[in-house]
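Researcher: I'm comparing several assemblies side by side, and this is the next one on my list. It has 522 residues spread over two chains. Same procedure as the others: predict the full complex and return the structure.
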Amino acid sequence: METALPLFYFRPTICFVDDDPLFLEALTLSFTDHYNCITFTNPEEAVQFLTSYKPPLAKIKFTHDLIESDSFGLSHQLPLNTNISEIAQLTHLAQKHTEIAALIVDQNMPQLSGLEVCLKLKGTPFKKILLTGETSHEKAVDAFNHGLINKFIHKDKVVAELKKSINELASLYFHEKTANLLSQLESSRLSPLSDPIFVSFFKSWCESNKIQEFYLINKQGSFLAKDGQSKSHYFVLLSEHEKSAFLNLNDEASDKVEPLLNRLATGEVIPFFGPGKECWEFEFNEWEQFFYPAKTIQGRENYFWTVITN
Amino acid sequence: MLETLSNNLNLLMAKARLSSSELARLTGLPATTIKRIRNNEQSNPTISTLLPISKYFSISLSQLVGDEELKTINNSYNKTELQRIPLLSWQECFAYTGAEDEQPSAVVNTIFTEKQMSKKAFALCIEDQDLDFFPKRSIVLIEPEKTPESGDYIVVAKTEQRLASIKKYIAEFDQIYLKSLVAGLGISALTSEYKILGVILQCKIELKNNIP
């Protein structure tokens, strides 16, 4: 089962703790493509660093009080406002790649055991993976059941399992960061971001286009995506419902842009006026340049999508 | 009331031949909000939404939401506000200038009128029996700021006598004549010895006095 898409994702930092420097070096080698890695051979140093660490995202808020709302003064209502276009501002956030999404810690270390490290870091937001041997299996199960760790992997299977686990947990980390925004987004209607068919489609699109970071830019489910060469793409999505709403909004303009609207009605093209831009900000005679050939995905409803590369 | 708002907006936009997208561009409001008001789906539009719309169409908020009639748009003629005009004697009116100390509060008798008149305006009571169609005891309202045209009834006085009377103003072949309303008195040319005090705009005729 796919979890819902996070509203944004960028390359995070993974923290590895193991007393064997050779093992650490070998381990991190296979992750530097997709993650920033920091390593500690001394678990006490790791604990000291991680307890004083401040995640860059902790300072960022996307919801604001809607002071002008009539219900602002009511004690039982939360009038909140979310500006989705602020999410893409994260591209400019310095230090964002130092956000730690996961900690991978070996159980068997002389100074502190992996579980002791996790216990000292209880309540920290990053995900924790414990690497276990034969003797520590039961303790790991117990720690997992108590929510102290998110995963345990037997050291023999590290190569095969760790990569998949880190990918999943990093994605989960961003999902949890944005879960409240997604529930706001879905207050009136389900979003494609929680449609398993769209989620797996988008993930595989990201994979095949080597997308390293993405940011939601509108309610419809369009993203600003950046690949390994920092090249920007707009992944534009329009659901069947939003398509009808667009046609309905512009039903009086049929004499001026009728051919375009007819092509939109069949799903042949979809509009994208730019991030944060609305159709009514442009004269009808300018519209043609903002309509792009689209493809269709069949999920909970039909989704029409296109990719625009700057 | 909300239904009236959507009706009014639809009417205004149809008259101006505007679509929701175009009005959105002109007012800076979201077209979706405008569409929702027009379809009567917006349950409680805010002032910040309604104000740009009323400003664009040059109407008041009350007119937009239907508290005030929409057809009185830009038509101050229909605004019936009564104005107080001082009732002067035929001797007083020669020197009357409408200055502050002579305004209605200082004058004992005033006449109400629905006409838009200047501050210099005044009223006179007809005292003569035989003045053409102005019956005795009728009240005439005089506007000094108006330039007389041929056929107008004016109040005029000889500078020497300082006594005002009503004359008909006739312009013919570049010459201006004053026709007396008293039968038997003829026409005289307008000369510099006359001072025109104003044009009669209205005559209120008292047919019967209701005071016993």
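Model: For your comparison table: The radius of gyration of chain A is 23 Å.
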